[in-house]
Amino acid sequence: MTTTMEEINHFFERRQVRLGMNFGLSRMEALLSKLGNPHEGLTYIHIAGSNGKGSTLQYMKGMLMAEGVRVASFTSPYLIRMNEQLKINAAEISDEEFVSVFTELRPFIQEMDEAGNHPTQFEILTAMAFSYFSKKEADLVLLETGLGGRLDTTNVIKPLLSIITSISLEHTNILGDTLAEIAAEKAGIIKSGAPVISGVTAKEPADVIGERAIAVGAPYYQSGRDFQIGHIKKSESGQSFSFTQGNRTIDHIEMSMLGQHQIENAALAIAAVLIALEHIDENSIRRGIAEAKWNGRFERASEEPLVIMDGAHNPAGIEVLMDTLKVHYPDYDYRFIFSSFKDKDYAKMLHELEKDALEVIITEFAHDRAEAAQALYEASHHKNKVLITNWQAAITEGRRKTGDKEALVITGSLHFLSLARSFLHD
Question: What is the CATH number of the domain that holds 81?
Fold first, then answer.
């Protein structure tokens, strides 16, 4: 039976709508067992966190590639197409390989479906990643959690080390109502004997992570305590910082990704590779950080007019976006195009960006989880809010209005960004 990428896309879309998110590891373990447990025998760095997972992964990948390591990466969600989520070094899995790996899994999916033990879309994709990386004999796999940690689909592995980037209130209906509860879920990726590196400094969630590390006997490295950032310099086009861990200091590390949060993510990544690899050349660290890019994260899509796309999809992400705008474009006025999923705290997101907004253009996009533009519009309290339900028209109008010393910022949802990015780059 011939299978195409279009058919696989439709299969995943239907499955996501029908099954949604269903946490637990039993289905994943059953599916991997049928595949011959391809996840065993690979070496992993496991990454969880509310924000910053993808950027931290990109910095690590850049440094590891510069050092000559054959590195695999599994990320989510994707911006343009599913292939982005499975990579060996910088190369996406090809359509032919994607179809081949999916075809290998299909009989086992059908077998589990018939038994009433339906694997979810994300479980299938994760199993495909393990199978693909095993076939490609990757030296090291950078594995990003989907949501949470303890019961996340990816949490079937034994990592070389774990990273927790940040903790903020997100998916409270699933992960818990407090930072401590969410931290406990994220800390579920910490395994016995495997070091954990944390960017979480707020006492309540940091204490939870530290207690978990002690409980399982995992060496614990915390940002600000065990490694430090200093000598920060910022401009419109880039920024630099120094990194210190123990007796080792690396001065004037340059990077093109903007924002204080990106410096913090880069420091986590440096700490991780210094622990993961016995020896890494300082030039590999510098080159990896300098060349790292992560589409959709404070991405300058256009200069005239200035258009910035940022995948902030929760209140903490919006706060970081606003801080980054003020630091790198302090003399600009900001016009926003906003859309969001229903299950996000979009009222709080809107409140944060409206504090410094010249105008807020509210729109919507086609997705079963997307909130209607009218509901978003009603949640906004900005004096200059505009409702344009057609998102292409919203972007066109936003660009038309944006003049000198103004920035058009498209944000609120990574899925929305994927559509906007394709539209802007056509």
Answer: 3.40.1190.10
